[in-house]
Amino acid sequence: MKVLDFPLVKITIPFIFGLLVSYYCQPPLKASLIFLGFSTILFCASYFISKRNKKAKTFFSINSFLISFLVGICVLLFHTDTFDKSNYTHSKTVFENQQSITFTLREKLKSNDYNDRYIGLINSIDDKVYSGRIIVNIQKDSLKNPLIIGNTIRVETTLQRTVSSKNPNQFDYAKYLSDKQIYAQLYCKKSEIKVSRTITKDIWYYSGRLHSSILKNLESAHFNKDEMNVALALILGQQQEISADIIKDYQYSGATHVLSVSGLHVGFIMLFIMFVLKPIPNTRKGSAIKLVTILISLAGFAVISGLSPSVLRSVVMFSFVAIGNHLRRSGNIYHTLLVSLLLILLFEPYFLFDVGFQLSYLALFFIVWLQPELNKIWKPKNKFILYIWNALTVSFAAQIGTLPLCLYYFHQFPGLFFVTNIIILPVLSFIMIAGIIVMIFAIFKSPPEILVYIFEKSIFILNQLIHYVASFESFVIQGISFNFYYLITLYLVIISATMWSQKPSYNKLIAVFISIILFQSALIYTKREISNQKELIVYNVKKSTLISSRNGNSITLFASDTTSNKSSKNNVFNSYLVGNFSVLNKSQKLKNVLFFKGHKISIIDSTGIYANSISPEILILTQSPKINLDRVLTQLQPKIIIADGSNSYTLQRIWQISCEKKNIPFHATAEKGFYRLN
Fold this sequence. Notes:
This protein is an alpha+beta fold. Helix content is 54%, strand content 16%. It is built from 23 helices and 20 strands. The two termini are 52 Å apart.
């Protein structure tokens, strides 16, 4: 089957390119709409011309691509909240002074040690209508006054912009939130908030109430807490309360996808529903009843699970599969994937930049495309061996399809993923069936103890199996350096090799060799690029000083104490190592004077000692030294002052004023992030 020949592909690909261009280039909305209107006129004209003249079909095809591309641009711009004048980002005062802010709780997030966390929808600021999504952090206390989804809250506070990562090559939380149209956070205490008696009763409210009812009934059935939290993740996609140790076990064993409700889970649920509906005859009326029941059941599951994006994606996908089965078009699974992909991105274009979305569709595509080819390698006659072989081929197809992306985002590879999938699939099949039955009971009342006991023990066994596989930490390859060039070229190798294996030909073999050469070129280019780089980094680390000097891929680390010298265990420094394809050459105790590429660097620590004899270009202040900076600046006359994260906030404010008086740039890493000298 030639996927690229599908008409829908020719619409979807330019549409996705339009989303990418809009995301990275951010063209003006008005200009994009003008171009879209002009292309629509050309599209209509080319359509009527092509009806009369077959030679004009090429012109019509080009216009089809163009209009799909421009629709992609405009769709993403329309879904960018900052273009809405009523969005709170256009209120400058709310980020500077205390304002009366009214918001509605939309979604419960994972709490931390200090705060209960929610996603809130802004209603008004100082009684002026505003909109937008924020993260709400409400300080925990001993009072039992739980908030519910749909509560409207009023509080006097200041919004805080989500700051970007302050160290190189680290996960950018601000970027992650902005892709979800969240640009600020709110911090408050329970005693400071006023909860309105009026509750916004929308679908999220009823979803939250249903989830709370399930949780209450499970607790009344004396469900073990650890197992219950895993059960809520497996069946409902609620990961908020899972312990860090359990999450680590699932990551190391290569079973993280089990905790995130995806196509695997929704597929199990759909198969279970189809099994229950099997007695209904496959007549026209019977098929219609089955389809409606499946669609309602999948929609109900999405509501129960809290309408999370991962669940909604999978529910939409399998809803189209069900419709395809009803229309007797189940064989064309590629069309089903493309229709669901296009529909989701039309309504939620920012999903394209969500890692879970990318992994989900890549895994599904490669299972559909590659797994049948892997299955042909061997045809075991024994049913048990056949089951294991099928599980292996599905697992390998999904892993091959998602491997480059996992290396690019997570820089690690669980070597025992295939063992994990063989072990857990039989247990997971039983857990999903038992879990669905238990959750259905829990919607209405406390489930029977025998069902809860069986379900609880099956999850306990699953956790123990996962923990056992994860205990072989030597099979978890971490710290894999992998950049965008590797990502693209490795996918070219995988795709070209798969196409050649399906139907070998000379041209396809040439394509394989070209893709391998491109991958090797990416390796050589990256190595050459890294070898020519030299830079010094001053990191932002609280209560500690960390400076690294890199020459090519060799790094020398300077630290203020022996704890920081153990750089392999330091997350801040390790991210930089991996991101720059580098290795730690040596670690040294921090000195008062450093030299880098002809630059003199003076460092003043808590002792306040510095050399008057040198005139440094750069002055680094660490560990809150008690000095008269005005006098130091007069004596040393540096060109720039850097204060790292080990200094107190009060001193940094005083130093900044001193620098402003003398027109000397002041770089505080706690405010501006790490400092790079190259």
